[in-house]
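Homework help thread (please don't just give me the answer)

Our assignment gives two proteins as sequence + structure token strings and asks us to describe the second one. The first is just a warm-up. Here they are:
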Amino acid sequence: MDTGLAGAGPAGTSAVRPPYQAYKRWLDTIPADLLARRRLEADLLFRRLGITFAVYGEGGDTERLIPFDLVPRIIAAKEWRRLRRGLKQRVRALNAFLNDIYHGQDILRAGKIPAELVTRNEAYLPAMQGVTIARQTYTHIAGIDIVRTGEDQFYVLEDNARTPSGVSYMLENREAMMRLFPDVFGAVRVAPVGHYPDSLLQTLRESAPPNCDEEPTVALLTPGVFNSAYFEHVFLAEQMGIELVEGNDLVVRDDKVYMRMVGGLKRVDVIYRRLDDAFLDPKAFRKDSMIGVPGIFQAYKAGNVTLANAVGTGVADDKSVYPYVPDMVRFYLGEEPLLQNVPTHILRRPDDLKYALEHLPELVVKEVHGSGGYGMLVGPRATKEEIETFRAKIIAKPEAYIAQPTLALSTCPTFVESGIAPRHVDLRPFVLTGETMRVVPGGLTRVALREGSLVVNSSQGGGTKDTWVLEDEISDIRAGED
């Protein structure tokens, strides 16, 4: 079979990367039409399982199937160890930063971050000032978006410290690959990911308040069926064996949180919440919230329930704060960052603004509060009209934007209509913080299926891949813990 894997090497080369060589040997032995047949089977499988996502702001059917690519993204064991160390370091610094800004604010007084970027940030919640939480852990589940350049350097594209999504697709992608190509896992030694729900549940239990029962009760709080990630909420609750609840399933009595059960009320110690801060408690935040739990924030402040992730974590993944994360690593840990940021122009700075306006056709410009690939300009792919429209937006409100160069991103072999061809990818590994830190070996790989596209978001036409971390004979990859 002509695999087309000559594009699996570094940018500008035709060599097959060493991690892909065992996979290529297996791929060369399969019938030429097998991938096409298996792609149809994968589509049917994902539709039957209901693995879709919602697209807001569009007419017609807003439920879409996320395209699943059959060619895995493969990472060598040595590369993964290096990446894992950097991920853990970064999340430790982010947790230290969040604890600091809601207590002593040492980093602001030291002038390492402009105070107004934090205290005037819409994600900063003054109500959290001075609140003590279990283990001083704010982001129990972090999703760190990573890109890789053609020179094999990893860069952090953004941090997701609030309610990172996508882990269900990581797990289902592996399940699909094992169903569709069971024999390949005999030819390639791949680290498992199926233990993630158990690791997540253990992390949540470790994060329980000190005054709870010996076996903490954990529940997953969802906004409901209309949320774009509802499939994931159902999936994770089932996999962990915990109750999936909505706001009206919970009640607060004497600053403690209870679930309404058939046999009466049952206390809840840890809530893995998948709704935004503003809607969490109508008594504390938005009074018109119909999906929150009245009084839950007071129970949280009293130390009687753990919310994961913590309230107010959005400051840590704001794109205007992102450029300062390497400084957080140095300030809190006394270490040099193992993972670098993408070079970033902060457009609230006059010099950065001037540079960006002069080089818009070369840059990627993002809203500091944007997500999902919306509200951004990809200069090299934009029309003159789109560039000028964005220029006006930036001039009107420069503090709302950052700009980054379009890096020479690495590509990954991808099965498209013309065969196997290179496409740009990113990676979202998931870092869990409880008594220990755990990193599932791999993560969610998103792929820009359109030729030449740099935007991998599902809402913008991107797809997903199974992510393989190769094991070696002395690997400590399975545990993923310190």
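The one we have to describe:
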Amino acid sequence: MAARTTPITAVTPEWLEKGDNAWQLISATLVGMQSVPGLVILYGSIVKKKWAVNSAFMALYAFAAVLICWVSFAYKMSFGHQLLPFWGKAGPALDQKFLLRQAHLSATEYKFHNGTVETQMVQPFYPMATMVFFQFVFSAICLILIAGSLLGRMNIHAWMLFVPLWLTFSYTVGAFSLWGGGFLFQWGVLDYSGGYVIHLSSGVAGFTAAYWVGPRLTKDRERFPPNNVLLMLGGAGLLWMGWAGFNGGDPYAANIDASLAVLNTNICAAASLLVWTAFDTIFFGKPSVIGAVQGMITGLVCITPGAGLVQGWAAICMGILSGSIPWYTMMVVHKRSPFLQKVDDTLAVFHTHAVAGTLGGFLTGLFAQPTVTGMFSSVPGTHGAFYNHDIRGAMQVVKQLGGALFIISWNLVMTSIICWVISKIVPLRMPEEHLMIGDDAAHGEEAYALWGDGEKYDSSKHGLYNEAVEAGNRGSSRYNEPPVAV
């Protein structure tokens, strides 16, 4: 290795805190691993075999496409100078002078009529390059979560257009409004790590896009078994462990609030998983592995807006509620609602992210503890109603609900417009003949050289095969579908 010619001190500015920088880069990498490989594996495993490749690719494509858009213009729309009260000015984040200077979260300050500043700019002790990458992985996972509502039928070309459009016109608005110094942040709405910016927006956008794209084939909706439950658990595990970076990185420093956020995250996820599993056991007689994963996710989502703002006992309460309320909306309300039944939300992202994210934001308005909330928000009087029984406490709950209403409304309208525009360019949904085949039609590739769950079979390509014999060999009624002609 060549000898170093420049002293280390010459490239290490005085403001750089190496511990904070290392933790922030680790946190960003953990969040990135939630998407790649976490959700790539989870999506590719939880769907029917014929959709494994397409589902994994939708996640992989979104991760790459968002990064290029992010550094080209979207970062500054989310965290740059204000263009509108809910939107920043677009601009590239690629210049070396910009990337190597000390990071700041926002260029926005709000002043009272007497000239005093209400909110100070957050200025961590590491370079902008670290901040840009950290914020990128959040934007990427938001798009990938939307994909969960659309698996098994969206035209891949439509998805390739949807990703940059939705990032530009929807994600950046929520990010700037709540994190970049926009009007919701100035009002005092609390969203510690993305309960609204990531999860509520992806849940609403996914459900809205699913409405416009249309449903899967009837046979796929009726029978959509995971092609690999154990691999699905591996993806879910990466998602859970990666959440240490998701919530632990949002104090923007390796401080005591980061430790609190990580512990609260795991407490709430565990409690939610156990409650969801208990409900499945009580009402269906058996604990469901997929149900346990859904309970885990709702717990992680619910704690996200308040991870570093609440105490441990509140995290347990949030876990109990996140394991029960989304379970009820998914298992009871959804099945009784003709409208919800009509919209084909493949992985129930509406319930696991929109419902759980709104619940988490509301509970943060109740349980945000004044001392730790003061570390996060400089807006006076921003803490939970549980600690303040006068009008200010009630107003925090109102603010949380108002913030949720804005995110829901914006995403409902903007996602609909984006889908309508794309539909004028390419079809949103695959042709029926492609839906019958799956991955081979969409990509010319297949995940496994195994057969038996009803997809179209090309004997000239894959050799002779008798599905009825294979079903008998497996000894499972699950595979007893009409055999494909040999």
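TA reply:
I won't write it for you, but here's a hint about the kind of observation we're looking for: The radius of gyration is 23 Å.
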